Amino acid sequence: MLMVIYFLTSKGITREIVLQTDNGSEFGGVSVDKLEYLNKAIFSVLNAKVVHIPKGKKEFNAYVERSQETHDNEFYIPQLQRCESLKEFMYRALRWEWFYNTKREHSMIKSTPYEYLKNFVSIDKSVGLFPVIILDNAIDILDTILPVPPGHNVSANDQAGLIQTFWTLSKTCPNCPTCSQGAIQNNP
Question: What DSSP element (H or E) covers 20?
Fold first, then answer.
């Protein structure tokens, strides 16, 4: 979720970003307090919030499941065995993502996702190219951005302060964490 927020912000989205999830426990589940805490401590700092699928609207989750079926049938199943390397897979995945977001009409919205999004916000077409990542490797990225001492698990309580610090620093030094000013390294 954080990667999505950072990506959209990097594309010039200044409006509040709303992420809708199912009612899984990782996103607050049935605990209103947990969802409120996540929004207040983590997401509000990033001008974002998490909301659950509205009660009585289970079909909203069906839309996500249907898009996964499209990815399976039109990309993974026909392409995966053709790839001779991880690099080739990543390249094909990026091409698929571009096609899916900017060229392929979606029956539900009667347009491409990019064309649909343009109805609400002025945005560059590159928004259709969210970086292709292997989620197993995403932990390495988070470990770089939000280091945690060995043997510790990062809870939402721990992340809230780290995220707020990182976000504040990135606003003052847009090239962090590798900028010549060394803002992340020089600030606790």
Answer: strand 17-21
Rounded Cα–Cα distance for residues 107 and 66 (Å): 11
Segment 11-52, tens digit of pLDDT: 888 889 998 887 777 666 777 788 888 898 889 989 999 888
Q: What is the pTM of this model?
A: 0.67
Of 123, 127, 109, which Cα lies nearest the Cα of 15? 123
DSSP code for 180: T
Distances (CA, A) of 181 to 31, 34, 70, 167: 42, 37, 45, 16
Closest residue by Cα to residue 129 from 99, 97, 89, 86? 97
Q: How many C-beta neighbours within 10 Å does residue 166 have?
A: 22
Cα-Cα-Cα-Cα dihedral sign, residues 32, 36, 42, 44: positive
Neighbours of 172 (CB within 10 A): 10
**Structure confidence by residue, pLDDT tens digits, 7-17:** 898 888 888 99
